[in-house]
Automatic annotation (TrEMBL), chain A:
<feature type="transmembrane region" description="Helical">
    <location>
        <begin position="243"/>
        <end position="262"/>
    </location>
</feature>
<feature type="transmembrane region" description="Helical">
    <location>
        <begin position="143"/>
        <end position="167"/>
    </location>
</feature>
<feature type="transmembrane region" description="Helical">
    <location>
        <begin position="326"/>
        <end position="343"/>
    </location>
</feature>
<protein>
    <submittedName>
        <fullName>ABC transporter permease</fullName>
    </submittedName>
</protein>
<dbReference type="InterPro" id="IPR001851">
    <property type="entry name" value="ABC_transp_permease"/>
</dbReference>
<feature type="transmembrane region" description="Helical">
    <location>
        <begin position="24"/>
        <end position="44"/>
    </location>
</feature>
<dbReference type="GO" id="GO:0005886">
    <property type="term" value="C:plasma membrane"/>
</dbReference>
<keyword id="KW-0472">Membrane</keyword>
<dbReference type="Pfam" id="PF02653">
    <property type="entry name" value="BPD_transp_2"/>
</dbReference>
TrEMBL record, chain B:
<dbReference type="InterPro" id="IPR003439">
    <property type="entry name" value="ABC_transporter-like_ATP-bd"/>
</dbReference>
<feature type="domain" description="ABC transporter">
    <location>
        <begin position="5"/>
        <end position="242"/>
    </location>
</feature>
<feature type="compositionally biased region" description="Polar residues">
    <location>
        <begin position="512"/>
        <end position="524"/>
    </location>
</feature>
<dbReference type="GO" id="GO:0005524">
    <property type="term" value="F:ATP binding"/>
</dbReference>
<dbReference type="InterPro" id="IPR017871">
    <property type="entry name" value="ABC_transporter-like_CS"/>
</dbReference>
<feature type="domain" description="ABC transporter">
    <location>
        <begin position="252"/>
        <end position="503"/>
    </location>
</feature>
<feature type="region of interest" description="Disordered">
    <location>
        <begin position="500"/>
        <end position="531"/>
    </location>
</feature>
<protein>
    <submittedName>
        <fullName>ABC transporter ATP-binding protein</fullName>
    </submittedName>
</protein>
<keyword id="KW-1003">Cell membrane</keyword>
Length: 360, 531
């Protein structure tokens, strides 16, 4: 055996490099660019580089990035659960929209922000349940059903708003307000981590918990097995359908938390055009692919994308205009490069495939 | 006798097929029991019944003398039955330990976490106890196939299996790994485990098993002690010798060579050479039969001949032209008809109706598919004429092919292929799973074509069929033609010996002269001289 493992070691090392080189490179390039800007800004504070450095090192940028990350990262966590179990959920966008609207509506009716938050989560979970029934029970195509989820929510939420409030935008409701951790919030720059909306803290917890579930619990293993080789799970005596239902519902819960947080932090749901969600569900898919289905990886890639977006906003204010559209396509360009050219993201073997017990 | 598992009168029907027909099987504790039979004999179905994947149509399953009803593999696992499938049920990116414990993970903190140390210890303990060589921390995708199989066995043992079912366990192993597996099986039975071992390889059943049960066409045709039998008897049991259907076969009037293969070699997906240096030819008005136990390269040979795979080496001629590199379409158009061995997989599109199925293979023909456009009325007429001439029931061109019984599906394919007015018919198991009436009908049609001067290559694992229809008969064993004989002058015993791989020149030294002639004919079988 020792011989065999000696033989496999170099192989797995190169494999490791191959698997992660793109990510390592991206991370390295990002860090290097940021450092270069910071150093450059410190040396020449009055140039455009200086402005960049100011923007990057500003606490506002970090706090904006965190705020922008919340819905995307929650949806990405949900997407990980669903896709790892073998059900590709491209309806995350729809789950965000439905929960964003419902959260505001319930808050407005009951007056309780947290009740509204729960309402949004519930709405998203119910829509995810519908998606689960259609794809698992009735074996509908996951992509088509996922698109349907998006389109249903995209139509339903502004319509409901129109019926209830007479316009695609809802009235404003009180926001939950930021929670500041004493002392820690005063740390320069990183203080932004400790003076944020409750949803940001909730996100930190969700990222950690998701990682724990996948790495340490039986359920996490079953989800992985269900997406890689459902037959292995089935013959081991675990119901694949149940695992997939649980995973898809969980994606509904998580995306619902993201959507509710999105609208409640702003106190309003805006339903014009692509609604206030505006593609965040799709960026979430990109984020978890780029993060290689790892909750922490997905969160970090979300921060990267959101960070770019936040910088762009701040730069705009400083009079240096980078077209917003250009920033917005970054995640998609990145994912195309990662998936197409390098192709090191390991998509679960059985993702997108139906499974029926006893099928030969 | 201490019976671990007893299957009593198991019958399993699928729509249109009887996979198991009143099968009895008793397996003694602490032994290796081989379930021997050809592909499609119902071995795996029977074991899936025992493992709870299928519910039997009738019959009883008894484990340790008590009747049990398994609704799912979970029930079977609880009753101490484990199954190692032909395709491993392993999750590639997970580790050996994670795979073995999947679904039964030891937990701690009230179920909130997998107890990884306990899981690893359990795996190490088990593999030490049975002398297995596995690395508990390796990922499945990084270990050898032999080790993956040991992981599968450990997985069953971890779940407390006393009876282990192994489905074709040697199919994916190298010879060394096969030997290792057999040693593992010995160790397991020594510790009181019971093994049921599905195989279609005689030699392995003889080598590894204490008792052998032979299945044929879904029936148990005999259970024998491995020590008290020999390869020839087993081959005969497997292939069977049902009453030879009377075939009225006038002597062959052979003409020119229609098709010839020389030094053909074919490799399978794994790169193993499954057809090795095979040469033969077939003439007008002649049936050239290829006999052999399934899996000795017949299918691959036929696929190379019909253009479904490309040979690694050698040359194929058809009507005097080299067609080695020509496409399937060219072969069809030049007059090669093919009755595939798996009619549902290759012969028909199951959810298409008969009109659409009648078109298959003729979609480019000037009659049905002129100028890239399909002439549906003509195709319908064509389908109707096949249905009428070949007595396909129900006689409705709009019914889908999956609604037809196996025999009628086959008649439809035979009709479609013969209506191409072929020069050569390649027929692979043309009557497998077909009722007796249709068998007779298909045989008659084949002989009619022969009379019209068509050349026919026939493979069948049914001895009486190839023997009764062929003018010359090649016996294939491990990718080679072991001999080419005159079927009328050869007994079933002699054929059985050949099919079991006994070379004619290895035994009976007093027949050396005759054997030499046989060997020669294998090398250069241009011979009408045998017939």
């Amino acid at each position: 055996m020792s011989e065999a493992s000696e033989e496999t070691e170099p192989a797995s090392e190169t494999e490791f490099l191959e698997r992660y080189s793109m990510r390592v490179m991206t991370a390295g390039v990002t860090v290097a660019a940021v450092l270069a800007l910071l150093v450059g800004g410190w040396l020449f504070p009055d140039t455009i580089v200086g402005t960049f450095a100011d923007v990057i090192s500003s606490e506002n940028t970090l706090s904006a990035a965190l705020r922008l990350s919340v819905p995307i990262a929650f949806a990405a966590l949900g997407g990980i659960f669903s896709e790892k179990s073998g059900v590709i959920n491209i309806g995350l966008e729809g789950l965000l929209i439905i929960s964003a609207f419902t959260a505001i509506y319930v808050t407005e009716v009951t007056g309780g922000v947290w009740i509204g938050f729960g309402g949004g989560v519930l709405a998203s979970t119910l829509l995810a349940l519908l998606f689960a029934i259609v794809t698992i029970e009735f074996r509908a195509d996951q992509i088509i059903a996922g698109l349907a989820v998006w389109l249903i929510a995209l139509g339903l939420a502004p319509f409901a708003s129109q019926v209830i409030y007479g316009g695609p935008n809802t009235p404003t409701v009180p926001t939950p307000g930021a929670i500041s951790v004493p002392v820690l919030a005063d740390i320069p720059f990183f203080g932004a981590l400790f003076s944020a909306s409750p949803s940001v803290y909730l996100l930190f917890v969700a990222v950690g918990l998701s990682w724990y579930v996948f790495e340490r619990t039986t359920f996490g293993r079953w989800v992985r097995a269900s997406g890689e080789n459902p037959k292995a799970l089935d013959t081991a005596g675990v119901s694949v359908a149940r695992v997939r239902y649980a995973a898809v519902l969980l994606s509904g819960v998580l995306a619902g938390m993201g959507g509710s947080a999105l609208s409640l932090d702003l106190g309003q749901f805006t339903g014009n055009g692509p609604t206030m969600v505006n593609g965040k569900g799709f960026i979430a898919i990109v984020a978890y692919l780029f993060g290689n289905y790892n909750p922490i990886g997905a969160f970090l890639s979300t921060m990267l994308f959101a960070g770019l977006d936040a910088m762009q906003t701040v730069l705009q204010l400083q009079g240096i205009g980078i077209p917003r559209q250009l920033i917005r396509i970054t995640p998609f360009v990145v994912v195309i490069i990662v998936l197409a050219l390098v192709g090191r993201t390991r998509i679960p073997e059985a993702a997108g495939e139906h499974y029926e017990s006893g099928e030969e | 006798m201490d019976t671990a598992v007893h299957l009593d009168g198991i019958t399993k029907r699928f729509p249109g097929v009887v996979a198991n027909d009143d099968v009895d099987l008793a397996v003694e504790r602490g032994t290796v029991h081989a379930l021997l039979g050809e592909n499609g004999a119902g071995k795996t179905t029977l074991m899936n019944v025992l493992y709870g994947l299928y519910e039997p149509t009738s019959g009883r399953v008894l484990v340790d003398g008590a009747e049990r009803r398994f609704d799912s593999p979970r029930d079977a696992i609880d009753a101490g039955i484990g199954m190692i499938h032909q395709h491993f049920m392993l999750v590639d990116p997970m580790t050996v330990t994670e795979n073995i414990t999947l679904g039964n993970e030891p937990t701690k903190w009230g179920g909130l976490a997998v107890d990884r140390a306990a899981a690893r210890d359990a795996v190490v303990d088990l593999s030490e106890r049975y002398g297995f060589d596995v690395d508990p921390d390796a990922r499945i995708e990084d270990v050898s196939v032999g080790e993956q199989q040991r992981v599968e066995i450990l997985k069953a043992l971890y779940r407390g299996a006393d009876v282990l079912i192994l489905d074709e366990p040697t199919a994916v192993l190298t010879p060394q790994e096969v030997e290792e597996l057999f040693e593992v099986l010995e160790e397991l039975t020594a510790q009181g485990k019971t093994i049921i071992f599905i195989t279609h390889k005689l030699g392995e059943a003889m080598r590894a098993a204490d008792e052998i049960t032979v299945l044929r066409d879904g029936r148990n045709v005999g259970t024998v002690e491995a020590d008290g039998t020999n390869r020839e008897d087993l081959a005969e049991l497997m292939v069977g010798r049902e009453v030879l259907l009377d075939v009225d076969r006038p002597p062959a009037e052979t003409g020119d060579v229609v098709a010839a293969a020389s030094n053909l070699a074919v490799e399978d997906d794994r790169g193993v050479r499954v057809v090795d240096d095979v040469s033969f030819d077939v003439r007008e008005g002649e049936v050239f039969g290829i006999a052999g136990v399934d899996g000795n390269g017949q299918s691959e040979l036929i696929e190379a001949l019909t253009g479904l795979t490309s040979p690694e080496a050698g040359r194929i001629e058809f009507l005097g032209e080299d067609i080695t590199g020509s496409s399937r379409r060219q072969r069809i158009e030049s007059g090669m008809a093919y009755i595939p061995q798996d009619r549902q997989e290759r012969g028909l599109v199951m959810n298409f109706d008969l009109v659409e199925n009648a078109l298959l293979g003729s979609q480019h023909s000037p009659e049905l598919g002129p100028n890239g456009r399909i002439d549906w009325p003509a195709t319908r007429d064509h389908a109707e004429s096949i249905i009428e001439e070949y007595d396909v029931r129900p006689p409705n061109p709009d019914s889908t092919s999956e609604s037809l019984s196996g025999g009628n599906q086959q008649k439809f394919i035979v009709g479609r292929e013969f209506s191409r007015e072929p020069e050569l018919v390649v027929a692979a198991h043309p009557t497998r799973g077909v009722d007796v009436g249709s068998i007779e009908f298909i045989h008659e049609r084949l002989l009619e074509l022969r009379k019209e001067g068509v050349a026919i290559v026939l493979i069948s694992s049914k001895l009486e069929e190839v023997q009764g229809l062929s003018d010359r008969l090649a016996v294939m064993y491990e990718g080679e033609f072991i001999d080419v004989v005159d079927p009328a002058g050869t007994t079933e015993e002699e054929l059985g010996l050949l099919m079991a791989g006994e070379r004619p020149d290895e035994d009976a030294p007093d027949q050396a002269g005759q054997s030499a002639a046989h060997t020669e004919s294998t090398d250069a079988p241009n011979g009408g001289e045998h017939a």
